Here is the input.
Amino acid sequence: MFDLSGKIALVTGASGGIGGAIATRLHAQGATVVLSGTRADALEERAAALGDRAHVMACNLAGEGEASALVGRVQEELGQLDILVNNAGLTRDGLTMRMKDEDWHDVIEVNLTAAFRLSRASLKGMMKRRWGRIISISSIVGVTGNPGQANYVASKAGLIGMSKALAQEVASRGITVNCVAPGMIETPMTDVLNEQQRARMLAAIPMQRLGTADEISSAVVFLASEEAAYVTGQTLHVNGGMAMI
Amino acid sequence: MSNDIADRVKKIVVEHLGVDDGKVTETASFIDDLGADSLDTVELVMAFEEEFGCEIPDDAAEKIVTVKDAISFIQEHS
Here is the structure.
């Protein structure tokens, strides 16, 4: 099950905790994986650990033109792009009353606009081959909201809305478009929490533990697979029961 | 040569939209007469680009409504 042999996958933000796990799992299922991100050293290290079928294409998605150039490069060097995982994301937290335009813009640009541009650039080839998977990593807060993260929450909710629209546009061509919405996951992003914050968070999680990056990548592998061909426009919540929606 | 282009265009339309070639007249509109949806028209433009090795920019693609529009554009740009 979930055999991805012969598929070419692009994972953005692959130097991060969740992105790295996604790339690793897609690779383990047989896919050729392109790891993208801004930290070339970390990507090279990860790709070297994977061995064959792992490529590094560093890219800063903040710039206009970068996203489509990245997809172009994948297609040029590897022939095609079958699975796009929009995972790259950043936070610039702050109360709305104090949030600068720049903090809003930077987060929307990388988390949402780059995902849009990457998706747009990937579609042509996917439509021609009548097969494609676009999976965006949203977040539980994109559905529930979270104080201090108006920009991040907007970007993550935006991914869900965009995926639903796009899913309807291309469903007839064998392309599925879905989101995975992680809850609280053990990553550098949650490592910064203090004990008190951590305890409060755990109290809200029926499973009483944080999730792992691997548990997110399992959901991505499923959505990328042939077995998930009839699943589109959906958001798969992986959150230990923290929100049941 | 121009007939050749017209024939190749019509062949792509017939294959892509699965319609009878008798229906693919020059004045036929892809959407109104041949049952294409908007995504089909995007794909037709992609197929024309591939067949004729040309680039059809988005603003030009929007103006390609009938079979004749496609043939004319390709004749002018190939």
Summary: The helical segments of chain B are 2-17, 38-52, 58-63, 67-77. Residues 2-17 of chain B form the longest helix (16 residues). The mean pLDDT of chain B is 92.
